[in-house]
Structures are given as structure tokens and as C-alpha cells.
Amino acid sequence: MFRFVCIFFLLFISCTIYSQKNSTPSCTEDAINQLWASVSKELNNTHNYKRAISDLKVIIQCSIDQKDTTNWAYARLYETYCYMHDDDHVNMKNSLDELLIYDLSSLSNDDNTSILSSAYFLYGMYYKLKLGLVEPSILYFQSAIDLLLDHINYGDKGDLDVTELSDIFNFQVADLFNNAAVIYLDLGDYEKAAAYFNIAKKVISKDGTYKNWEKAKKNQNLGLALHKIGKYPEALSEYKIAEALLNKETEIENRDKILAVLYKNMAEYYSLNGKKDSTYFFLEKAMTYQTKPAYKIYLLRDYSSVLLNDKRYDEANEKLDAAQDYILETYSVNHPEMAINYQTRASIAANQKQFAKADSLFTIALQILSGDRTKECNCSNLKIEELIDKREAVTTLTQKANALSLANKNEEAIICFDVLASLVKELQQKYIISDASRLQFAKQTKDVYENAIRVAVLAKNNEKAYQFSQLSRSTLLLQQVQQKKAIEAFGIPDSIAAKDQAFKVEINSIQKERENAQYKNKHQIVDDLGAQLFQVNVKYEKWLSSIEESFPNYFNLKYDSPSVSLRNIQKHLKQTEATLIEYFLGKESLFTFVVDQNQVKIYTTPVDEQFNENIEYVYQHIASLDYDYQKFEGYCSAAHQLYQRLLAPAKEDGLINKKNLIIIADEQLNLIPFEALLSAPFDTREKKESQYHKLAYIVKDFNIDYYYSTNLIPYFSTNDQKQKDLNPFVGIAPTFETRTSQINALSFNRSEVNSINQLFDAKTLVGTAASHKSTLQEIQQARIGHFATHATFNDELPLDSRIELADTAFYIYEIFSLPHHLEMVVLSACETASGKRRKGEGVISLARAFTQSGCPSIVASLWKVSDQKTSNLMKSFYAYLFEGKTKSEALGEAKRTYLSEALTKNTHPFYWASFITIGDSSPIIDMATKGFSVLYYLGAFLLLSTLLFLVFNFFKKS
Q1: Closest Cα to residue 915, out of 706, 765, 718?
Q2: CA–CA distance from 692 to each of 635, 688, 696, 793 (Å)?
Q3: Does an H or E element contain 477, and which?
Q4: Which helix (H) or strand (E) holds 590?
Q5: Is the pLDDT of residue 384 over 50?
Q6: In 3D, which of 881, 907, 884, 909 has the Cα closest to residue 894?
Q7: What is the C-alpha to C-alpha distance for residues 615 and 671, in angstroms, rounded to an integer?
């Protein structure tokens, strides 16, 4: 028996050795090529990823034996790709790490770019799919894109060669851009997301191998980006294109996956537009098509949020239960998706006034987002740098702060809002780059700050409430001004500053043309210009990176926008002898902040329909020349009611006891000049006719200066800016006979600038001399620029807004980055201070464009103005400036003089109230000195004449 066992054992060993010997892989070139062919078949046809991994391991071993770095690197790369599709994320990460720590220096430039760009893409997918981490994933995706675009020299060539990209990148190029775009959507940079979705769409349109479901996927993603930006008609158009493509698709499984996502996005679209029935309809349609667990999570979460808003709490929790099951099945208990689940449950509990439960659930959500379920986690010890998903943390902190407020824990809520403000600032500076995305983000965060202000007011913490109000306002404008000041502060060479300006003008010019094409539904032109815009942006960003290395301090200051302390504001008020009144107009409340040298007082009033109607009525009446008696009565009533709401409480409390006011308006309050409000009611029983000359306009009592934000005050102090080497004044008054488009002639603009220039003896450009080239040249060498011409703000196409010159238009985007040393710009034209109102940011206007360019003081109009009356008002304004008055005093005196001298009918506010001063109001120093000098010499001459006369008479009598 023992001999039998021994013989059997020897036979077994022999067979094993023989088997191993015969199973040793053949590493000949033909054998490796056959293995690669097998891998290709497994990846593209059978999708047998385990078999592909087995073949790839053989290639890896052969490559190690033969010291073949190229084959080894590509085999590792595809091994990682197979692990990803096999949901083996541990081996996926290990394989990627092996690849990137290996010495790849022996690879050719093409192979190096190919391997690294593809590896970065897979790293991005790992962090996105497995860990749900937004920030590292976009860093890897963007690195892959930058490598590819650099390799094909895209910034200089400008042609996105799809074939060249596909040859160098190992996977589908559209997938790279698509996934990067999805992350930019998560981060809030919707403009960049839309640009990348457009690139993915272009790649697919040029590559005939893509199927209808793949094309539809890109259209629905582009639609999502567009509706995030707020371009709703364009978004719906993309969704419909996607749906039509999917209806042609024959691959049922892929078609259904994309249909589910499409209908989910359409549900979100209709939810944002307040269409509840359509929202539920498309959510249900999405549920019928969605089978993939990872996507079911998003869908169920969205469904629960809609149910929460409808106060259907039990149903909302049921959806979250189902979502949680899928999270545990697909990811882990510590995945960010689980944090969102807890966050939504906490909001449901808070709405049901189960505050202790809500607080516990919010804590778990923050623990997950901080990467540690064991640590104590609340707003007082939360570290922003440890958050693994900062964008999602914004939502969690917002809901937690609101819940604390509902529980009357206002002090704790303020701490949460403070952390939230820091987090919002970091996102604005680090990730949300494009202006369109920043505007959208400001709109979203304004609601957050409204709650923060409300909580601080309830806690009687007025200074904190005021701080939150500052954080909510004109953040984009502040960053733009900060960038301009950073260039000056760090002595950036003129050549670099000029190139930066040229890039911006080119980018905005293309964007303007693209907006025009979108408006006219010229889709092919939109796509072509989108590609051109992307190319210029790539070139610009590459150039910026090179400049950043040479001027690191400039870039640090550029993105650091500090808030101005209340103490500094009060110091400014003391110097200017002014009272500051700032308004925050929210969904539910109007907060009026009155700041003097010693205190902040806040008045809170509900926002009702009558308040909004009064604002609209006053604007419509004074912006149009209408003497109808009933409308006059309506104006008197509405203007006095607004005064009662906006100014009277502080006046009655003795807080408005100065002649000078600084007004920071908000939302629709930007429509109206406060000077035209009425401090007393008019007794309309006295005489049934429009008696504008008898009204108690507050311009009779106050000089008013307007600011976009108090955070701009320290940037715009002109007291010490003596530019002796510059022209004191340039007046621009074009005629339009050489223009091809029909522009109405102005009768008084030339006499206006010539009359004003008699005070300066400086420079005027009148008639055809006021060309685009001459205007740009002279405005850069002047301290005061005066435009007496036509101007247009285009609400539909803001970048098409312009100031008319003799030969062409001076567009708003040229003003944005205009190099100059201007102390004041006077826009003696129509509607230069009015424009598109953007929630959280203010009014986008021609006046604001000059502020953005760094001009500290603007005089501009709120509606279409009278040529003749404007000319007279401007002459009077400059005459008072020459007496040494501040700009707001000079304009106030000019208006009061007009009212005292005008005929009864001409005292209608249409004629005099349109112009306002924006920004720094300090006097133009040299004007006061010059005015004084004239008087001095005149007085000396009169005195000398008198003395000579007396001496002559004395000797005559002798």
C-alpha cells in the first residue's frame, strides 16, 4: 500500500512539473501579438474582462523578462481598465500605482503622452467611481486633457484633430471630456462643463463609430450644463435632440440607461422652472428605465428631494431607504453618497421639528464628508481642508444651519454660517473660474446669506448680519477689480498687461458672436464659435500658467478678495460726513442696514406684493415723460410709500442726520434713483393737475452717492491720486454720418463737451474725430472721460451692449479690461447705469463695466434721457465740481439748481433724476485748486486796481 502511494505521488509530481513546463507562456513576438489580439477581442466584443486580465498578466510577465517597457506599460494600462470595468477598484488602484512609479523615461514622446494621459484618465475614474471624490478626480481629468492638447499643439493650431487625439489616447476621447465636464458641473463651473460637453459632442460628430445612444448621452449632458447656467430654452433643445436620437437606437440596454438619465435631468429642469406635474411625470419615466444601481442612487435621491419640498416626508424617506441599499451594494458606508443620504434625512427630520434627530444625522453626514466616522464633528471644529467633497458640504452646512435656526439655536447656526461663508469663498476662488458660473453661484448662495442675516438679526448680532450681507454682494465685481489692482500693485510689465487685455477682448468678442448666433438659432455657427472659444481659452490658460510662475505674488493677490471691516467703513463715513444705508432684498424680507460712525442698526420688513409694485410704478413713471394726472397721483403715493419703507424709520430714529448719504441698493431697488422719492405726501385734493414742482423730493435734503459694495471703498479712494502728467479731461461727442447703420443725430452733445472743456482747456473729440481708435488712445491719457453720445444696453445679449462712436461701437467687453488712469467717467448717454439684474451680483451695466476696469467714480443714467436737458445738467455739474464740491454734492446741487430754475412742466423727474454718481465721491482736487486760483488772481487784481485808484485820487487831490 505504501509503495502504491509513493508511486502515485511521484506520478502526480511528474505530471504537475510537465504541466507547468508546457503552460509556461511563449514570449515570442508572434505569441505576444496573438495575446494582444485576444485582449482586443475580449474588450471590444465579448467584454470578458477577467479573461483579458489573464492575457494581460502574461504580456506583463513577458515584458519584464524582455525588459520591454513599452509593452509592459500598455499592458498595465489595459489591466487597470479591465479592473475598472470589473468593479475591482482595489486592483485598479494598485495597477495604476505600479504604472506611475515605474521609470517610463525610455518611452518615446508619443508613447509617454499616450500612457500618462490615459493613466490620468483612469485615476480620475477611480476617484470618481470608487471614492466619489470630486477634487482629485478633476485634477487628473484636467491633467489628461492638458497633456493631449499640448501634444497636438492645439493652443496654436486651433484645430481639434479628432483623429490625432484618438491615435494618441487609448480610450474614447469623448469619454474623457464628458467625465471632466460632469465633474465641473458638480463643482459649479457650468460654463467650463458646457465647453467640455461641446468638445465631446464635436468628437462624436466627427467619428462615425459612435452609436446613437453615445451621441444622445453627450446631448443630454450638454443640456444639463445649459440649464444649470440658466439657459433653459437651449437646454430643452438639447434634451429633445437626445430623446430623438434614443428613439432611433436599436441597442435596448444602452438606450434605456441613457433615457433614464435624460428623464431624470428633464425632471430637474422642470423642477427648477416650478412645473411640479412635469417633474413627477419625468421622475416616474426615469424610474421605469433605470436599472444601473449607481444611477438609481441619484434618481432616488432627486425623487426624495422633490417629495421633501412637497412635505411628503414618509414617501421621501422610503426613497432614501431604497437609495441607501444601492449605496451599500455599490460603494461603502463611508462614501460621499451616504453623506448626501444622511443630509436629506436630516432635512426631513428638521422639517418635522425632530431637531435632535436632525442634528445627529447632520453630524454623521459631516463625519463622512470629513473622512472620519469616529471623530466629533460639528461646525465649531470642522476643518475645511479635510472635507473630501466641498461642494456637497455647502449643502449640508446650509441645511444644518437652517435646522439650528428652526430649533432657536441661533448662536450655533451663526457658527455654521461662518464656516459656510469660508467654504463658499474657497470654491469661488479655486474652482469656479468662468464669469457665467460665478454669476450662477452668486445667485444660489444669496438665499444662503438671506438665512444667515435673518439668524444673526434674531441673535441681535448686527455686526455679523452686516458681514453676511457684504459677503453676498458683487463678489464677481470685487474679484475683477482686485485683479486690476493686483496688476498695478506688483508692477506687471505693460506688455504682459496688454496681452492679458487682448486675450480677454478676443474671448469676449467670440462669446458675443456666439450669443448672437444662439439668439438667432444658428446652431452650426454656435458650435463653430464654441470650438473657437475653447481654443482661445486653452491658449489663454496656458499663457497664464507661464505668467504665474514669474509673478506668484500677483496671482495670490488676484484671488484674495478680503472683506472690509466695519471699523474701516465707519472711519470712511467719518471722513466723508456721510451715513451709509445698505439694502438686502431677499425672498421674504427686506433688511435695511443703517451704518454711521458709531453703530449699525438693522430694520427688517416683510417683502409684499405692494412693495414690488411701488418700485415698478415709480420707475415706469419717472423713466417715461407722462403728465397724466392719475399716473401723477399714483407716483406721489408710491414714491412716498417707498420713502416710508426705505428711509423714514432711520430718519425718525435720528440715524440719518447728515447731508450726505451712501446708498447700496439691491435687486429691483437698483431701478430707481432715491432722489426722486418723496419725504412728504402731496395733497392731491388741492388742484387736479400734475404739479411736479411742488413735490418733496429728497434730493432737496440729501446728496446721494451709490456703491455696488462697501468692499470696493478701499480700492477707490482718489484723494491722493494726482496725475499731473495726464490730460485733465477728454470730451467725446461723435456724429454718425459715416456709420452704415442708422443712428439718430444728437443736437447738443458737441456744445456740451466744448462748453465743459472751457473749464479745462484740454481735449475734445467731436464729430467724426470721435473714432474708436482716437477714443481709446485719448481715454488712456486722461483723468476725466466724458462721453456725450448714444449708448445701448442689450438685456438679451449683454456682451452686445455698447457706446456709439463716430465710426463704430465701443463694446462693453472692451471696457472690462481697458487700461487707463481715469479718476472719473461721465456717461452722458441713455441707460448707462441700467442693465441686466443678476441676483447676488447686482446690475450688469456699462457703468459697472467702467468700475470693473478700475475707474473709481462713474456718473451714469438710469433711463433714456433728453439731449438738451442733459447738456444743461452736465454743465451745471462741472461748474459745482470746480467750486471744490464732492461729486455727489455737485450733482445734487446741479439737480437742485435745475428744479429751482426750470419751468413747471420741466420739473418732471424724467428730466433731472436719471443721472447718479457711483463710487468714490471725493472732489477732484486740482479742480478746486484751479477754481481757487482763478478767484485768487481775480481778487488780487481787483484789490490792486482799488489801491491804484485810491493812490491816483490821493495824488490828484494833492
Answers
A1: 706
A2: 10, 12, 9, 29
A3: helix 475-489
A4: strand 589-595
A5: yes
A6: 881
A7: 8
How many Å apart are CA 435 and CA 454, to the nearest integer? 28
The pLDDT tens digits of the residues spanning 632-651 come to: 999 999 999 999 999 999 99
584 beta partners: 591
**Cβ–Cβ < 8 Å for 482, 557:** yes
Alpha-carbon distance 734 to 740, whole Å? Answer: 14
Strands 600-606 and 660-664: unpaired
Closest CA to 662 of 801, 564, 791: 564
Entry field: residues in the chain: 958
Query: Distances in Å between the alpha carbon of 809 and those of 501, 538, 544, 732?
Result: 18, 28, 29, 13
Beta-ladder partners of 787: 732, 827
- Nearest one of 141, 142, 103, 107 to 122, comparing CA atoms: 141
Sign, CA torsion 908/914/919/923:
negative
Lowest mean pLDDT among 110-119, 321-330, 708-717: 708-717
DSSP state of 45: I
CA distance 584 to 600: 14
Q: Are 778 and 814 in contact (CB under 8 A)?
A: no
In terms of Cβ atoms closer than 10 Å to its own Cβ (0-12, 13-18, 19+), residue 667 is buried
Beta bridge partners of 704: 661
Between 533 and 874, residue with greater pLDDT = 874
Cα distance between residue 607 and residue 147, in whole Å: 53
| 672 in Cβ contact with 638 (< 8 Å) | no
Q: Which residues of 572-584 are buried (b: 16+ CB within 10 A; e: fewer)?
A: bbeebebbbbbbb
CA-CA distances (angstroms) from residue 635 to 393, 536, 620, 692?
47, 50, 9, 10
* Cell 422642470 found at: 270
Q: In what order do the strands lie in the sheet with 857-861?
A: 600-606, 589-595, 578-585, 660-664, 703-706, 915-919, 857-861, 824-828, 784-788, 730-734, 763-767
β-bridge partners, 583:
592
Q: Could you give the residue ranges of the DSSP H alpha helices within 86-189?
A: 89-101, 109-126, 134-151, 154-157, 162-168, 173-187
Q: pTM for the whole thing?
A: 0.82
Query: In the structure grid, which three cell numbers stand for residue 445, read together?
Result: 448662495
Instruction: Please name the residue that has the C-alpha cell 466724458.
Output: 786
3-state SS class at 799: helix
From CA 279, how far away is CA 286, in angstroms rounded?
Answer: 11
Bridge partner residues of 590 (DSSP): 585, 605
User: Which residues on neighbouring strands pair with residue 764, listed in sequence order?
Assistant: 731
Contact 249/216 with Cβ under 8 angstroms? Answer: yes
Give the whole-angstrom CA distance, residue 789 versus residue 826.
Answer: 11
Do residues 627 and 907 touch, judged by C-beta distance below 8 A? no
